[in-house]
Design goal:
By secondary structure, the protein is an all-alpha fold. It has one domain. The longest helix is centred in the middle third of the chain and has 106 residues. It is rod-shaped, with a radius of gyration of 48 Å. The termini are far apart.
């Protein structure tokens, strides 16, 4: 657009044109940045969802590990109890055998005493 001012001062016209071009570029850059901001915000929200899902998964995994730890402790305790019971049974059998031998020795001595 040619104005009287432009005709009187061509440099002012150039400045106005440059200003208009810069304003247009600025406007386009602003729109581009706004689009990029929207994209980044959506990506950020998606990352938040993924991180939250990962956090929930870790919480569940931790609970499973705790449960497995308790089960393992129970299995170990049962194994130890079985060992103790087997050990006691072995001692009881040995004691029964010893008692049987002692009883046989006592009877043998009593018989010897009667035979004499």
């Amino acid at each position: 657009m040619v104005t009287r001012k432009t005709l009187k001062d061509p440099i002012a016209g150039i400045r106005e044109t440059e200003t208009a071009v810069l304003a247009q570029i600025n406007s386009e850059d602003t729109r581009t940045l706004a689009v990029q901001e929207d994209i980044l915000e959506k990506e950020f929200l998606e990352m938040q969802k993924v991180l939250l899902a990962m956090q929930n998964l870790l919480i569940h995994l931790y609970a499973l590990v705790e449960q497995q730890q308790k089960q393992l402790e129970l299995i170990v305790a049962m194994g130890e109890k079985r060992k103790l019971m087997e050990s006691k049974q072995t001692r009881d059998q040995e004691q029964t055998r010893i008692d049987g031998q002692n009883s046989a020795n006592v009877e043998s001595k009593e018989l010897e005493a009667y035979e004499i």
